[in-house]
Task: structure prediction
Amino acid sequence: MRTGYRLMISVAALVAVMVGMSGCSSAGSDDDSESWGVFVLDGASAQPSVMPSDDPAGDDPDLTMPTPNSRPSRVPAAPFAPHTASCPRALPVHPSLPRRAGYITWRDGRVTSSTTSRGGQPVWRAAPQWPSSRRLGTPMTFVAQIALNDDVVPGGAGHTAYLFVSAAPGLPTWDPEQGESAVVIQPGGSPVVPTRPLRTGPTRHDEVEVAKLATQLDPAFVPEADGGVGDDVWSSIAPEKVGGTPAFLQYDEFPECGRVDRLALQLELGTGVGYVFVTDDLAYGKYVEQY
Result:
């Protein structure tokens, strides 16, 4: 079952990439069933407006660059993507235990800083920290915000994670180490990408949907090398959710060689799945896409 599903996802992703290479359409189209499957800007071209630069800050006084001590010592930086030969398995460093998850039903509703939602604009818990594309230097596109809780990570209650992804076609948003996606955590987080004090900016979709959560207990994570979970179990943990056990479409891929292994959000993208992970001390997060 899972193999066939992954094959369909891969074919759909190939078609999406081919369409993306020919141009972008607005996410504000009438066909909402497709608008969540492709990263585009509402009402604006997603084509690169700035050439790649080794110094994205340039002369911009509003751009805040991450500093070496932005990363907590308990979660050291990894100089390689988690699926390279240097890190062939990328398994979680914490014990694999059953985890509570909030399974999502999207609906209309009012958004606050303690709401899990997608689309619209972020509701900041602290001063705005809008991330910028590493290659283009332009603001990323807001995707969703996640109200964290103690089931995601101890001490998570009272914190919100904000997911951003670069919208220009062809950028490696699937790789958490490429600087084309960002997870900002407030309060107290230390982003690992450049940010600007923008309260509003590009959004994946103007319309806002709020998550209604139904809680259940996910089984412990089982690495593929150890057989993985059965197809029936995988299907049960595959829907969109806050927290819980990730249902990877492809290989096991916890960011930074498994050192960032607390799943905060599993989000369907139409042609694949996005996974938001956060650090133990809520300093920052990483985002993975699989197709």
Q: What stands out?
A: Residues 2-70+82-290 form a domain with the Hypothetical protein YwqG fold fold (CATH 2.30.320). The chain has one domain: 2-70+82-290. The radius of gyration is 18 Å. The chain is about 10% helix and 25% strand.
